[in-house]
Specification:
elongated, mainly alpha, about 180 residues
């Protein structure tokens, strides 16, 4: 009885994973091709931003989010397939399929653990990655075009924070260097 309950729980978990990862895959496709969705998502995340700046940021994300959207779609559909394979292996009661699924699940778990340790366990990795991205946006600040307008809107948003005394990453000279 215990193995039957465990199998039922694992099947239920995998069905939920199939649904969740399928939704992530669909979200990736929608991010790739639907500007209004990107604007709505940004609106939910940022309520203090003026709508003109919001549109500029959405335009920038639409033009430069191809990699993120593609990653969402690929990761979502691949993991949905793996979870579906898990449902299949648990329902068929074939040990060979269950072993393959267990190996795939273990590899994914180890990869996630390594990623979490790298970004959250090693001091300053996440901060350094964020800083590098912000440094790349400084040369586009104040320039025309989608990247320039998005960079200007981003730095204007950062400058609205009351705790930040000045601008730039290292001071106002950041903007005069570029």
């Amino acid at each position: 009885c215990l193995s039957g309950c465990l199998r039922f729980a694992l099947i239920t978990l995998n069905v939920l994973l199939v649904i969740g990862f399928f939704i992530i895959g669909i979200l990736g496709i929608m991010l790739k091709f639907n500007k209004e969705l990107v604007e709505k998502m940004i609106t939910l995340l940022t309520s203090k931003v003026p709508s003109d700046d919001l549109e500029k940021i959405a335009d920038f994300l639409m033009e430069n989010s191809g990699g993120v959207a593609t990653a969402f779609a690929i990761i979502g559909f691949v993991f949905a397939g793996i979870a579906l394979f898990g449902v299949f292996s648990l329902c068929c009661k074939k040990k060979f399929f269950y072993i393959i699924y267990s190996i795939l699940f273990g590899v994914i778990l180890i990869a996630e653990l390594i990623g979490m340790i790298y970004f959250f366990g090693v001091p300053n990795n996440l901060i350094n990655a964020s800083t590098a991205l912000l440094e790349k946006s400084i040369p586009a600040y104040g320039k025309s075009g989608v990247a320039g307008e998005a960079s200007t809107a981003l730095w204007a948003l950062i400058g609205q924070d009351r705790e930040i005394v000045c601008c730039g990453l290292d001071g106002y000279e950041d903007f005069t260097k570029h």
